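Reading a protein record of the kind used here takes only a little practice. Each token is a code from a learned vocabulary of local backbone shapes. With that in mind, consider the following protein and its fold in token form:
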Amino acid sequence: MYLPYLRGKQYELLALRELCALPLDNTKIFPILEPIKTTLKSIETALVALKRIGIQMQLIVNPEHGELKGNGNVVLDFIDHIRSLGVDNVIPTYMILSDRDFAYFESTATARGYLESGYSLVHLNQISNVTALKALVNNSAIRFNIIHVTHQMSLKRGFTNGELTLLSDPFNKQKRNSDYISVTDEFFSNDYLYYADEKFAAFSDYLTIGSEFIEGGMLPYAVAIHLTYVHKDSGEIWIRHFISDSNEDYSDTPGKFGEALDKLIEFIDAEGLHTMACEQFRDYHSRGAFPGLGVVKKLSIMHHIQLIQELI
């Protein structure tokens, strides 16, 4: 099973909604979503679309970033509300970074009945009260027990409940898009090959975005398109970065997209890649159209999720 970790930004939600047409496989794909805006309507829309194909979403109730940081009750109330409307494909998911997070999980999950109805955890740090945490988890209805790769050895020990999941961040984020010119092709991940052998039921990553949270953005000097693919020799997942050539200033983003897209089309044709996203890239290329940088990010996300779904 694969749990793509997304944040509730517009194009990340659109990627999930558009992949419903693939369709996503509800035995393989279980997205994790960290909401970042107090307005949750777009997440409700995505949940309704995912429910139609039986996809369950792990919704973070105590986000680490954005407008909802420190205001988890908004998300808890949202979950109760949409469940009352029949949208029941959402699993309350807690991030555990500190003993305060454990106390919040214990009190709210108990009060709202999640210990019996089901929940998931994302462990990003080892906490001092881990013995009590494991005792609670091992005697309740946890679904996914997601452990960051940094703590995989210490934290995977002692948990007996839930689907043990490995969370990693293989995207090698550069400071500037133009910095990818020196690393246009690199290793990304081989988790899909080994997670079962290493006694994990599932694996998770931050796709081609990375775990770093960046609010907003500005026009880049260079346009970069990131695309994962299977390396023919090793069978591992690698990532190729397609970078524009005219990177001297902020001007002519559509022209720079065209330069990067020329390189991407040459590559996917040679590799025989035909995901939904690759076909949309071919369409933009044939029409000489520029859909905007948000759409480029969306297509990169869609391609990665479809690639993993077809591999596992």
